[in-house]
Amino acid sequence: MDEKERIEQGLACFRDDVRATHAYPVQSAEGMVKLDVMENPFRLSAELQRKLGERLGAVAINRYPAEGTQRLAAALARHAGMPQGCAITLGNGSDELITMLGMACAKPGTVVLAPTPTFVMYEISARYQGQRFVGVPLRADFELDGPAMLEAIKEHRPAIIYLSYPNNPTGNLWDAAVIEQIVRAAPGLVVMDEAYQPFADSDSMALMQRHPHVLIMRTMSKFGLAGVRIGYLIGNEALIHEVDKVRPPFNVSVLNAEAGMFALEHVDVYDAQAAELRAQRERVFAALRAMPGIEPYPSQGNMILARVADAAKTFAAMKARGVLVKNSSAAHPALANCLRITIGSADENTAMLAALEASL
Ligand code: PMP
Fold this sequence. Notes:
By secondary structure, this protein is an alpha/beta fold. The protein has two domains: 13-42 and 268-359, Alpha-Beta Complex (Aspartate Aminotransferase, domain 1), CATH 3.90.1150; 61-265, Aspartate Aminotransferase, domain 2 (3-Layer(aba) Sandwich). It has helices at 3-11, 16-20, 46-57, 67-80, 94-105, 121-128, 146-156, 176-185, 205-210, 221-225, 237-245, 254-265, 267-290, 311-320, 346-359; strands at residues 33-34, 86-91, 111-116, 132-137, 160-164, 189-193, 214-219, 231-236, 294-296, 303-308, 323-324, 326-327, 338-342. Bound molecules: 4'-deoxy-4'-aminopyridoxal-5'-phosphate. Pathway: Amino-acid biosynthesis; L-histidine biosynthesis; L-histidine from 5-phospho-alpha-D-ribose 1-diphosphate: step 7/9.
């Protein structure tokens, strides 16, 4: 066999659906105003960055992660107000928790269900683990379609229902009474994905306490540590115990754990940033409302979804002006001509609004 045939032999091992798709796209943003993936725009002050460097420099990197990650898990549990009888497990970002949940629940015929459009990893992860994903369209105003959700739950009996709360990319929270109905009807787990909780008037802990099949997933990414990769899942002890069995044993590095601890010790800094981003979100929303040719949707996250006449054209023109947002059009039919704009610093938002106005 020659080299080409050997490579072919290797390629033939990969699943057809894997070969037919592409890796998760990460847009290059060198030198641009980067408002595409809901990052916190604020870096630490020079003083805190120096202190963090000292802390990281003192970490023993020759050993596998152990006590450091346990300390971080305990600190995150305290930070989130984890109730009695619950446990926490950590992921390398909440993306990994979605993979872990899928892996731990992947029986033949398992169904994962979510209202759509929503965060794409629920579907991608389900597909790669041989599960069927059922998406239930949101209403035109992006509110949950209660009857359709209940009908789909009855028909498909999902093992996992994901509710992104607030929802990515639409930014909104949903009617609490409808969520309560969904939770009551669910035959399996309900995961409240609270990635955007730092910017929202919501907290699903009480829901979880009333209904122990509800799990709460959060991340330090939107809080301000997207580069560090720490997600966490809180729920009834017995349920978290099962999820934890499929966790890659040393999935959170010692450096990540130390950086996470450092951030929690400076929670006031991050709380102030979240407050500033909420205020900026209201400012941007008002400006978009006043701008002809664009229709923004109300948001409780650090992003605003907005519909324009021609999203591809506006996206490209903004990019040419040095501002990167996300063109969400292709992700779902309900998002046709929608741009998802991350909330940045005051200066970034000013630049974004100017570029947008010139690009419509
Ligand atoms: N959940 C939602 C709703 C998200 O939008 C994202 C990222 N955009 C994630 C989870 C994953 O976040 P991370 O892996 O950075 O924790």
